[in-house]
Amino acid sequence: MVPRASLTADRLTEAAADLADEIGFENITLAALAKRFGVKDASLYSHVRSLQDLRTRLALLAGGEMIDRIAVAVAGLAGKDALVAFAGAYRAYALERPGRYAATQIRIDQSLIAGTPALHRTAEITYGMLRAYGLAEPDLTDAVRLLRATFHGYCALESAGGFGAPRDVQKSWDRAVDALHVALENWPQEENTDD
Predict the structure, then answer these.
(1) Per-residue pLDDT of the chain (195 residues; tens, 9 = 90+)
(2) How many angstroms separate the CA atoms of 143 and 140, rounded?
(3) Is 154 exposed, middle or buried, given 0-12, 13-18 or 19+ CB atoms closer than 10 A?
(4) Is the pTM above the cut of 0.85?
(5) Which among 69, 70, 145, 173 is least buried, having the fewest CB atoms inside 10 angstroms?
């Protein structure tokens, strides 16, 4: 039994993150978290407003952890080297921390995250890597979406055992990142349709 006074929003969020990795993000409930601490559900409400509040906190925690890992991987690199390091750190986090990673995929009210350091750092690192390819808006946003869709899709399929062909999954990942590098180097110019 944990004394109620030792519960904090941060401690609950960390415990929820660990629980998400164990049982899956979609299975996180306030009742499951309260059980872990040996307290009644009602004890949690003085620290988190709701399950959605807890999930948002978890998403922000996980997003911060993930971008910290990516930042270390890409430090001092540019171009393809940075892309490979970014992709590798992204995939490693997704596969090693599946519940936390799932939390990073939820939609969060933008007003809740606008001033968060993790969001600023994510944009800074991601857009910085892509600017090395000579991209500017709106191409930066399009490229971010391409990377996220590719990385997420691959990781989701891999973690679900969705790749059944005998080809080594790592080799396919490496080729996918090579293809993304080629796409970024040869980014198509958007046609001006304002005329």
Answers:
(1) 445 558 999 999 999 999 999 999 999 999 999 999 999 988 898 899 999 999 999 999 999 999 999 999 999 999 999 999 999 999 999 999 999 999 999 988 777 677 788 888 998 999 999 999 999 999 999 999 999 999 999 999 999 999 999 999 999 999 999 999 999 999 998 776 655
(2) 5
(3) buried
(4) yes
(5) 145
CA torsion angle 42 45 48 53 (round to 10): 80
Rg (CA), the chain: 19
Cα-Cα-Cα-Cα dihedral sign, residues 122, 94, 140, 176: positive
